[in-house]
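Quarterly update from the structural biology core.
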Amino acid sequence: MNVGEVCNREVIIIDRDGSIRDAAGLMRKYHVGNVVVVEEKNGDRFPVGILTDRDIVLELIALDVDINAVTVGDAMSFELITAREEDNVMETIKRMRHKGVRRIPVVNDRGVLEGILAVDDLIDSLSEQLTDLARLVMGGQQRETEKRL
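Predicted structure, tokenized:
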């Protein structure tokens, strides 16, 4: 299975010049824990960073930083890792674990933002697969029992 099959295509984005308050408002409005910071070129959106609710709390509020004095670009994660749509899901999970990230922007071959892959998406997908496998085993056992009767 590839990342493009699992990722969420509805990505909440913001410009690096956006305010922290605007970013937090978007997260609240869309019930998400992050915004992807993008740079627009010729109508295409290229991810340049990510800002999470955790970043806001731990790096700004907990340190008593005046959120009106910084922009999204000042507070976003700069070491952005991305996944391509055709990347293998299991390999991507390993990369995410190695980097300690719960969300990763998904890009196409040109680096244009196409989606976002979050741990929650992966859990949903893997849970569905495990349920299908369990039903397969249970169905086989039930058929064997019925044949014996």
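The chain has one domain: 3-118.
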